[in-house]
Design goal:
Helices cover about 30% and strands about 25% of the residues. The protein is built from ten helices and 15 strands. The strands form three sheets. Strands 3, 4, 5, 6, 7, 14 and 15 form a seven-stranded mixed beta sheet that branches. A six-stranded parallel beta sheet has the order 10-9-8-11-12-13, with helices on both faces. The structure holds NADPH dihydro-nicotinamide-adenine-dinucleotide phosphate.
Length: about 325
Amino acid sequence: MRALVMEQGEDGLAAAQITDIDEAMLPEGDVTVAVEYSTLNYKDGLCLSPKGGGLVRNYPHVPGIDFAGTVETSDDPRFAAGDKVVLTGWRVGENRWGGYAEKARVKADWLVPLPDGLSPHDAMAVGTAGFTAMLAVMALEDHGLTPDKGPVLVTGAAGGVGSVATAILAHIGYDVAAVTGRPEQADYLKSLGAKTIIARDEINETVKRPLETETWAGCIDAVGGDMLARILGQMKYGASVAAVGLAGGAHLPASVVPFLLRGVNLLGIDSVTQPTENRKRAWARVATDLPLAKLHDMVHPATLTELPDLGAAILKGGIKGRVVVDVN
Ligand code: NDP
């Protein structure tokens, strides 16, 4: 079977090779999946880097933190040969072999049956990034967000999480303001449904005043750092921010005043160990709330061979939308 394998050199640095490996090398698991598509997330960029981004512990390693395909064999009664499945998270592709190969062997607990209406290609156009965007939308709604409350801010909007978040929110009736550091992506973001485009520099500044004008009814933040700290002071009374990512840094130089005086909520979003029932709920919502035509417009197709370069690009914020990798 063909796979992208990270092999460690004598200098301790890992490099990618596209090679044929014996299926017997696959790790233990209950279900073997014929992978059709995988994708590229920020974490994949880290796993493809020479030091494995602190995520990869053992080499040789097959990265790919998510994949979709067809069950080939299953020792678990929940799955049978021919079932279409998707996997995201559970540290697959990080400390376990992942989706950058024609086959993957995993625990049945980690798989979700694909909902009707979503193909394996669609599922990977969504990928971990889009699935996480859906979890963030659900968390905001669970905390009272409705379209009549006002505009919703999406940061890192031209990236994977941001693109899908923008498309979903616009489709279900929200007025979306998209923050991007790439003004040339304004037309793309408008085509996804963003109503307003905000330049990153306008908002990516250290907090000067803990409270600013109440502007946003909700926010999906893929950036963190100074930007998230500043946004907290711009939220409307009782509004929530879903903290998804750290593309701008893991620090949070914020004031607690927005929490205390405006009842603002900061909601953490974790896609990796999300319980299965909520995963099923999120994938079902993806199938109904993400317009497939817009999803297809944000896809950049790729092969295993292109992944090392694309991995380096995503770490520099250079990828637009979603990369879908045909592993075969
Ligand atoms: P992408 O690289 O596709 O998108 C990130 C976007 O953030 C970029 O496109 C860019 O958007 C913006 N950005 C990049 N660098 C900076 C910077 N220095 N300052 C401000 N903005 C910046 O990554 P993903 O969308 O796949 O992931 C986004 C984040 O979410 C990552 O940190 C990732 O690790 C995290 N994540 C978390 C998950 C979870 O379970 N919590 C799951 C999936 C992802 P633009 O050009 O529009 O400004």
